[in-house]
Amino acid sequence: MTEQPLRQHDLDQYGPDHRPRSVILGVAASDAHAVANHLIAHALRSLGFEVINLGTCTPVSEFAAACAQHPEAEAVIIGSLNGHALEDLRDLPAARESGAIVCPVVLGGNLSVGSHKEAAALDRLYALGVDRILEDPSELPAVLDQLRDERAAGAAARSRAAAS
In degrees rounded to 5, what are phi and psi of residue 146? Predict the structure, then answer.
């Protein structure tokens, strides 16, 4: 299920210079767990985010298409509860390399099969192009703020370098 972005009426309340922050949210390709996805979408909306929610069973190509439609998105947020994140994100390196997904990718959930979790599994996900891995969805707002601050600092540094 794809939810609609804010309507013009919704955008009017923010004014032209104060658009809500936006994120792209979805559940990994082989995963049909919807409850956490909807709870995260609801929580982010309550904080003022525009959430482009792609829903469950979302392949990397659909995240890339959403990035093309919403270049203002601050992050792609992917949930995975079935433990198959590594397989579901195997196309992420190509999407990152081609520029189809340029914003940070945040991943959370049960990311590998089995009760024993190895640090190497997280390293493999980072190697695919995941920027942040969360153990608790309550960390998400702070991580989004941190990513925004990092982008702003990078933009300011590039601006100073260009001016000198």
Answer: -65, -45
Tell me 4's DSSP state. Answer: P
Q: Residue 78: in which H helix or E strand, if any? A: strand 76-80
Which two three-digit tokens encode residue 52? 């482009």
118-120-126-131 Cα dihedral, nearest 10 degrees:
40
pLDDT digits (tens, 9 = 90+) for 90-121: 999 999 999 999 999 999 998 888 777 788 88
pLDDT digits (tens, 9 = 90+) for 26-84: 999 999 999 999 999 999 999 999 999 999 999 999 999 999 999 999 999 999 999 99
Residue 107, phi then psi, degrees to nearest 5: -125, 140
**Which residue reads 């922050």 in tokens?**
21
Report which DSSP code applies to 33: -
pTM of the model: 0.84
Q: Buried b / exposed e across 112-149, counting CB within 10 Å, b at 16+?
A: beeeeeeeebbebbeebbbbbbbeebeebeebbeebee
